[in-house]
Amino acid sequence: MANPTTYFGWVMPNSADLVTDLPADFNVFGQGVDTSMQYLLGGTTGQVLSKTSATNMAFTWINNDQGDITGVTAGTGISGGGTSGTVTVTNSMATEITAAGDIIVGTGSGTFDNLPIGTTAQVLTADTTVSPYKVKWATPSSGGFTLLSTTALTGASVTVSSISQSYKHLFVVINGIYLNGVDDIGIRYNGDSGSNYSETMIRNIGNTLTGVNTAASNYWRLTVGSTSTSWDNLSTGSFWVLRYTDTTNIESVSSGKGFDGTNKAFYVTESRYNASAAVTSLTIRCTSQTFSAGTIYIYGVS
After folding, report:
1. Is the pLDDT of residue 196 over 90?
2. Is residue 243 a part of any domain in this protein?
């Protein structure tokens, strides 16, 4: 009778073998087992067996982190982790949010915090004095035009003083002007009556166009006025005082309409003031006449 074999090809002793045959059969069987089990030898602490092929007993020892996740470590912005069982990780930034509109703001290297939403119409703005966020919700500065003063024109001149320095430019409107005689209407800054003004003007009087370039004057001209109270003969004008908080070469750009007693007049003027300080007061003046009526409006422009 042939000796039986196992799934691994190990030849087993036969029950009919004589006692003298058993040692040889066990020797063959043991050698077969030893040959098959040789791949299970060795390995180091923590290694695991891995199949190298589909052949029976084709194994090798490998480190258990090759191709497998052995642990989850939480990094910046993540919490949780572990090395066994069911591992949970959480987005820490998401859990910082507690209400609609919250935003996450960096507070340092690898750190962050929840900045609650501001109020309606506020904007997010940088502010390095706010710790630790360096940003904040704030109401934006009002833009556009802010009326600073309204002043009636009387006498030979009117001065508006203590003009706020909180704006970028000034915009001035003067309307409804008539005088007790025909005269130029001029502008001075800071009460300065020195020869510190220059102007370049295009003027149309009675459909006659002229250009005027005047330097070293003690005022600059906005328009001309007369005694006429007719609505279409009243003098009016407007001008910008650009970057009026500067301390040198303050420029103004103006347009004006007037009546010289005979003809309508139109002025467009670019003027420059040789300033030594920011503009804090503005004077509207006549050369030799006085104002009978008129109003000046001064606006701060953000």
Report:
1. yes
2. yes
